[in-house]
Amino acid sequence: MPDNNGAPNTSERIRTGDVSGTMVVGSGNTVNNLSITAESGAAITVHTGPLPDPVKRRPICQLPPSAAELLIGRERDVRELRAAIETHRLVQVWGVSGVGKSALLRHLAGTMPHGPEGVAYIEAGGRTSDDIAQAIFDISFDAPNYKPSMEVLKEHLKTLQLRIYLDDAGLDEKDLQRLFDMAGKSTFVFTSQQRSAVNGVHAIRLEGLTGSAGTRLVETVLARGLRRDEAQTVEALCDAVDGNPLRLRRIALSAEVGKGLPGVADLPELLPALLKTLQPQERDLLYLLGSLSGAELAARHLNDLIGRPDTGVVADSLVQHGLLLASETGYSCPPDVAECVLRSRATEFPADQLCRTLTAWVEEKGTSPDDVAAHFQALDVAVLRAEKHGQAQLGVALARAASPKLALSRQFDAWGSLLGAGWTVAKSAGDKEGEEFFLREARTRRRAIGRAAQTTALVLEAGVLWHELTALRAHSAAQQVANAATTTTSPVQTVPLTHAGNAPAFPHPTVPTSGTPVPAHAAPSVHAAPSVHAAPSVHAAPSAHVARPVVDMTHGAQQSHAATHVAGTHSTAQMPQRIDLSQAHTSASQSAHAVHAPATATGASHSTVTAVGAGAAKSGMSALALTCTLGFVTVLGVGATVFVNDRPTPPPAPVAAPAPVLTPDASIFTPSGRDDTPPTPTVDPVCATVIPELSSEIQQYSTDASDASDAIDTYNSAMTDYNSGATSTAPDDGTLLSDVSTVISDLDSIVSTVQGAVSQAQDTSVVTDLNGMLSPVQQMQSLYQSYENDPGSAGFDPSSQVLAMNSAEDSLQTDCGG
Question: What's the pLDDT score for residue 451?
């Protein structure tokens, strides 16, 4: 065995100082050298040396420094989780943001016995399953400068017997299952905000603290005991905030700064009042982190940006009082705090200062690739913020400086994220050299991850790239929306008595269409469906006719406004519409038609692919992926969803059908000039029929669900008039029920198509995707049928089923070659 485990020679080893090096990527017939320099970027050459021979570390151990921190009021939870971890391979701790999941996970990681071969704790927020898998490999094996292919990576991970702790794992069910399968002998303990539906996961919901535990927490923060009357007040407040530790820490701060303990009625205005009591350096710190859409910065960054040497101490104090969040890699701002701070300042932290400071940090010799990868979400935010504030060239400079080190970190989806942001900003700035740099890096990245065959025929015409090569928000876009929505607990409100004889009407936003403005934080459901909640029963009208209850569609609309920071704005944005991939073709000449089709379908004069979503409350700045195509849109990341947003930009010139274009870097070819890349895998024959059928049927469902929502709007408006006494006749629900019946019929068609495709499919992945779609569709069908039979019964919310259906359709597109 060679001393360097088959890594490149010493002369080629990564030198962090001048950002250059060579790593081995791939395996078998596709192994290559990836050479990286700050000046020229990345390039692929045929690997001629020995293949790396990864050696398993003994023992394997990576734990957070704060793993054994003191917990308050969690004794029962610790006992329950210890027992679950000893008896189950997959254990989830789930609950709302701020309830203490991360602290509990760190405690378990630091105090429980390790697995047979060791333990690994990983900050998973914002990472894709591929990047998490690579992180597990890097922790477990000594293999310098080696990024194995996915097939080889699986072979190594399946030998591990670790106890793996994943904090803030915002992956969807399919990606979670894929990750768990790759390391099938290891135990996974992970946290997230929503309960996982993955088979075999033992999910434990973490509730808030009890009244006595909440009192102890407040006493700990205050560093003193509470008087009897104070203890009673805290117990009442603990009940009002559902025992959320983050909010209890803010309550303690109120007493600490001399304002006394708030009353229950004061809770809605507690946060703005607390922010006014802070010192200028504390408000400056919240202003900085609140401008980053939930992305993290380390204490070093805070010192440089604020211009003080002690910002880490200030940040720790704010964490202690529930105004900041801390992880192993830095600090972030909860969405409700960010919203409040930015509203008071009416501006964001200067983008030029942010970009210049981060660029200088990235370029320092002491900044390692792993350091850059740990903060890729903040880099993405800074790059896009620069464009938003008219300083796109600063964003280009930051992305170009960070790209080589992100490549060397072996976190290739994080790298793709930055390339997507960089290309977008360079395009905006009119920086042709920058555009070419990021496109060249994207092509090299594709070769490195085994997509060379598609890359060599990449269509380069600008008109097509306008649609195909734009920054995308990947899997944690949905995670960010969920985090931003659940971090801010709804304020405590007093419900007024209703007027005798009439029932209250409930506001209801229409299911969005391409022209309907909606809050930017609305869930990124591709095919919108209503969230239906029945109101209390209506008092009988004078005519003895019992009026139908008002349908409340407010679920998902009463979210924290802070999530609008996702898109870098604090106003409303248009709900993005999905790019229809159903017309995928197999030739480069047809791909132009495929990408132009959505603009025609939506009736817009011009559409572009835009970013959706952003940083999670703790560290969920979603990965950006760069999209390249050969006959269909292919995402260069994992779990990304493509959206189209109408923009008042002149349409690009018509694009003639192009011939395949070879990339400038010809090193992928052998000396004979022949491309030795493996042939494109055979696609399941059922894909040719099921993809267009399902696309048409799901589009029809989306349209009819929107019509049903309009009918509900009309009905609610009429019911509001009736309840207010403006009209004396209760509204007719005939149109509403007819539209609901149409939606049920649409779902029947989808079920029939999916069941027929399952019986014909040959590829197991395609079968899995179809079954993954069938279940949520049938659930929606049942929900709508129940509502049709009894509209006055308890309401229902099909949004989770819609997201599951969309996720399964995305997976089907991928496994069918799209």
Answer: 54
Burial of 541 (0-12, 13-18, 19+ CB in 10 A): middle
Mean per-residue pLDDT of the chain = 73
The DSSP string of 187-256 is EEEEEESS----TTEEEEE-----HHHHHHHHHHHHTSPPPHHHHHHHHHHHHHTTT-HHHHHHHHHHHH
Contact 391, 437 (CB under 8 A): no
Within 8 A by CB and 6+ apart from 242, the residues are 96, 207, 208, 489
Scanning 263-334, the segments in alpha helix (DSSP H) are 270-276, 280-290, 299-306, 311-320
pLDDT in tens, 180-197: 999 999 999 999 999 999
**pLDDT at res. 604:** 36
DSSP code per residue over 650-712: PPPPP---PPP---S-GGGS-TTS---PPPPPPPPTTHHHHHHHHHHHHHHHHHHHHHHHHHH
pLDDT at 541: 37
796 falls in which pLDDT band (50, 70, 90)?
low
Q: Residue 377's closest CA among 407, 415, 405?
A: 415
Two tokens at 580? 């229809």
Distance in angstroms (rounded) separating the CA atoms of residues 270 and 334: 15
What does the pLDDT read at residue 18? 59
CA separation for the pair 552, 713 (Å, rounded):
10
What pLDDT sits at residue 793? 53
**Could you tell me the two tokens for 207?**
């509730």
Q: Which of 149, 132, 143 is CA-nearest to residue 186? A: 132
CA gap 351, 402 in Å, rounded? 17
Name the token pair of 629: 């195509």
pLDDT tens figures, 596-610:
333 333 333 333 333
530: left (phi over 0), alpha (psi -120 to 50) or beta: beta
Which own/partner pairs from 551-554 qualify as long-range (CB within 8 Å, at least 24 positions apart)? 551/506, 551/508, 551/712, 551/715, 551/716, 551/736, 551/791, 551/795, 552/506, 552/507, 552/508, 552/795, 553/506, 553/508, 553/509, 553/709, 553/712, 554/506, 554/507, 554/508, 554/509
Compute the average pLDDT of residues 789-796. Answer: 62
**Residue 479 has which token pair?**
């995670």
Which residues sit opposite 629 in a β-bridge?
A: 633
Give the three-class secondary structure for 598: helix
C-alpha–C-alpha distance, residues 279 and 797, integer Å = 44
SS3 646: strand
Picking from 189, 139, 184, 182, the residue whose alpha carbon sits closest to that of residue 161 is 184
Which neighbouring-strand residues pair with 120? Answer: 62, 164
What is the pLDDT averaged over residues 25-37? 79
Name the token pair of 574: 């248009």
pLDDT digits (tens, 9 = 90+) for 276-289: 999 999 999 999 99
Phi, psi dihedral angles at 205 (to 5 degrees): -85, 130
Instruction: For residues 708-712, give the mean pLDDT.
Output: 77
Strand 32-37 with 20-25, pairing: antiparallel
Do residues 99 and 208 lie in contact, with contact meaning Cβ atoms separated by under 8 Å?
A: yes
- d(C-alpha 439, C-alpha 460), whole Å: 9
Structure tokens at 784: 């709508």
Q: Give the type of residue at 90.
A: L
Contact 145, 23 (CB under 8 A): yes
Residues 6+ apart with CB under 8 A from 635: 472, 474, 625, 627, 642
Determine the Cα–Cα distance for residues 254 and 252; give it in Å rounded to an integer.
5
Spatial distance between the Cα atoms of 66 and 109, rounded to a whole number of angstroms: 10
Name the one residue in this structure whose structure tokens are 């306008």.
466
**Residues 392, 351: Cα–Cα separation, whole Å:** 10
Nearest alpha carbon to residue 483 among 575, 421, 569, 559 = 559
Minimum mean pLDDT range among 15-29, 660-674, 747-761:
660-674
Q: Does residue 212 register a pLDDT over 60?
A: yes
